[in-house]
Amino acid sequence: MLMNVAQLLKWPVGTTRIYPVEPDEAIALDGQHTLVTTGGRVRLDRIPSGILVRGDVEGALELECVRCLEPFQAHLRVHVEEEFAPSVDIHSGAPLPPPEDDLTFVIDHNHILDLSEAVRQNVLATLPINPVCNPECAGLCPVCGANRNEAPCTCTEDELGNRPFAALRSLLH
């Protein structure tokens, strides 16, 4: 998700450019998840301190269901709104001091804005804590461990009664 913003940095404050998000770009989120973009678009606005990026990025990633432990494809749409500051002056090429705000991203010395890190952080913030493959997922049997989505469990009520919290079951009736 690299964009050359050299020309946009030369234009006056208030100038806007809209870019599509290319499909099939892979963004490593962490050690186990990778987002593959499926589309979207971002708007780049020239602001006094650099560039403000706003837009939506759509993508898919593989998650593991917390009920049945099966992998499934999750489709996400993430809104991105981040500020980017140049690292060098566009006219002289002189290095600029780093931004005072730690949340501001930096445009590299070649005036390439890399949106990948901003998307990565926003996706990680929106990932579900307990991802479920579908709301009707029956999960695993607590006794035998069988996936109840594939076949009904053959465990008896007596086997379930030996569980540590079986006495609380009577409170439900």
Structure characterization notes:
The protein has 2 domains: 2-137, no CATH class; 138-173, no CATH class. It contains 3 helices and 8 strands; from the N terminus they run E-H-E-E-E-E-E-E-E-H-H. The chain has helices spanning 6-10, 116-126, 157-161; strands at 2-4, 16-20, 26-28, 34-47, 50-64, 71-86, 105-107, 112-114. The strands form 2 sheets. Strands 2, 3, 4, 5, 6 and 7 form a 6-stranded mixed sheet that branches. Strands 1-8 form a two-stranded antiparallel ribbon. The radius of gyration is 24 Å and the shape is elongated. The mean pLDDT is 90.
Multimeric status of the protein: single chain
Helix content: 10-25%
Radius of gyration: 24 Å
What is the CA-CA span between the terminal residues? 56 Å
